[in-house]
Amino acid sequence: MDTLTNLLTHRTIRNYKSDPIPETVLDKILEAGFRASTTGNMQVYSVIVSRDEEKRKALCKLHFGQKMVEQAPVLLTFCADFNRFNKWCLQREAEPGYDNFLSFFTAAIDALLVAQNAAVAAEDFGLGICYLGTTTYQADKLVDFFNLPQGVVPVTTLVVGYPDEDPEQADRLPASGLVHQETYRDYSGKDIDDIYREKESLPQTARLIEENQLDNLAQIFAYKRYTRKDNVHFSKVFLDVIRDQGFMNQE
């Protein structure tokens, strides 16, 4: 499958076969990840590969019991990582200045670019993938689980394995609602109605509204899926991790 077709036909997979991924295939997936763009060619990221069944079972609990975590044969946890780069600087008598939020953000971007390259490469091999947003929610627990030193923060996780389902492709907003030419043009009420009309008219949206006993899809997101209470709580957790891992120096 060519890369463009691969990207345009992407589907998130949540059910996997237990078939192992050949070592040569996994190596190529990671190599493709490492060819991603990176700030200043510093490569301030690391990838933790989890294949051990018992460890994946433990990780499943940390990722809110999402069964695909123990079902799929490989879990890849991508970390913002200045630990290695800082040690290199110190060993070469260069004082590193990367204990601040900007450096964390730089490393997080690098890690996410690697993750997406790896995701595309995995799909090219006929594998399925799913990103886990629970990585940032549970960052404090993952720091302990992986024994992450100062300068290392988990930012995302990829479940990788052979699909055991063929789901429908998820809907997407129209390009007209996402692209701005030359400058940002804010949205009018009519724009919002036009952009979300198709999503709101889907049969699955009607089912979700009925199941949740709410008036519309936006309320499901705001009051059920990603609530203010949860957002505030997990923001505090993640900011504490970033600080504890040495990235919040303001001086």
Please describe the topology of this protein.
Blueprint: H1 3-8, H2 23-34, E1 45-50, H3 53-62, H4 68-71, E2 74-81, H5 83-91, H6 101-124, E3 128-132, H7 134-137, H8 139-145, E4 152-161, H9 189-200, H10 203-212, H11 217-225, H12 228-244
Antiparallel strand pairs: 1-2, 2-4, 3-4
Helix pairs in contact: 2-6
Tell me about this structure:
The structure is a single chain. α2 crosses α6. The protein has twelve helices and four strands, in the order ααβααβααβααβαααα. It is of the alpha+beta class and 251 residues long. A four-stranded antiparallel sheet has the order 1-2-4-3, sandwiched between helices. It is 49% helix and 12% strand. It is globular and about 60 Å long.
What would you say about this model in short?
It contains twelve helices and four strands, in the order H-H-E-H-H-E-H-H-E-H-H-E-H-H-H-H. The model has no long low-confidence stretch (mean pLDDT 97).
Uncertain residue ranges: none
Number of helices: 12
State the order of secondary-structure elements, H for helix, E for strand: HHEHHEHHEHHEHHHH
With strands numbered from the N-terminus, the spatial order across the biggest sheet is: 1-2-4-3
| C-alpha Rg (nearest Å) | 20 Å
Structural class designation: alpha+beta
Q: Could you describe the largest sheet, including whether it forms a barrel? A: 4 strands, antiparallel
**N-to-C terminal Cα separation, in Å?**
50 Å
